[in-house]
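pinging the channel bc i need a second pair of eyes. not urgent but kinda urgent?? the chain im working w is below, pasted from the shared doc
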Amino acid sequence: MTEDALRAAVKDLMPRAKTDLTELVSYRSVYDERQFPIEECHKAAQWVADAFAAEGLTDVGLHETPDGSKAVIARYPAPAGAPTILLYCHYDVQPPLGDDAWETPVWELTEKNGRWYGRGSADCKGNIVTHLTALRALREVVGDKFPVGLTLIAEGSEEQGTGGLEAFVPKNADLLRADTLLICDCGNFAVGVPTFTQTLRGNVNVVVTVETLESSMHSGMFGGAAPDALGALIHLLSTLRDAKGNTTVAGLTNDQKWDGATYSDEAFRSDAGVLDGVDVLGDGTVSDMLWARPALTVLGMDVPPVVGSAAAIQAKVRARLNLRIPPGTDPQQALKALTAHLESNVPWHAKVTVETEAIGSPFVGSTHGPARTAMEAAFAASYGRPATTSGQGGSIPLCNVFADTYPDAEIMLMGVEEPKCLIHAPNESVDPTEIEHMALAEALFLASYAK
């Protein structure tokens, strides 16, 4: 009876979920005042605080973290003998990456072909709405008193990687203490396939600068003998992958195997939008390449743009590099290996500088325990099929902080961000059925885990 009632309640709440997501997406909550006013983040934070306060959570507040961002924290005290569940999400979003690349308005939730488009619709405002919908359904069915303790934490700078909440958690361990943590900033293997994100790759971000001349020089007068910083950088970056696309950082193993769910080439090509005739990278399976092996990506370069460039040899150029590392690889060792590789492979004795921007450790979530068992049952009931597991190429450094701070807690990663959401890219969207199914699964879990 409770399952049927919760299912009906969640379904009836979906129009309200769309209204909520419409308002949330309208806030340009990029935590970078160089791009958008910080007031947009403050508005989004206040909206989240007010929304969860309206659903019966107490001690609601905006807590400033060491990087200046505000974390929304709200609580509901656990009934006697009941566990406490922490619900994580974040309200800040990635920048739009060029309005002209979007087919719908960036900051306006737009329905198209059954999906809801807009920056943050999935990552991670869709998960905020999922939490809200689950709690609303639970209140409608079981009454205003929740059967478990709850702690909601909505981060304000996750996408910037500045570590505000990572520094906040250890100093406020009692405030956030919980028996189980639901990290809802991940997603299913595919729409309709309930999935535990079992592993996260860590990351190492560096900025490499190559210098060869005191200033840029005329390519007609000096080209051929004068060392070209851009040419040196191109040569250097080419050493980071082999002909098949495998990452080849000296000192890092690149032949690991993934032993979980298999990601077919066909599904990956479709999900990633790989153009016809273009190869998928690596000599392993897609699952190996995504979740078990290191992956080097050039995120950006400071070089002259085509339009406005001159006939000149460049004296100084930069590139921002992102190295993803699988569980089992220490991020400090990976940073050391990447730095040494760059310094030893730059050609022509060019001057090279490697600056560390950020590092994050890989993570493995809980694989068993009473919460995992309850969530597996909730997933199966909501989706009508058993849950599977996958990895994720991204990293959430906060997970390791939570694991260190609460070593006895179960930590599970899930959410609405399946591959077609195109998170971090133009035309981000969410499938509303994922919000509905995930909200029902969460509500079922909270109702059953209390028993």
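so The mean pLDDT is 95. and The first strand starts at residue 58 and ends at 64. — does that match what u expected or am i reading it wrong
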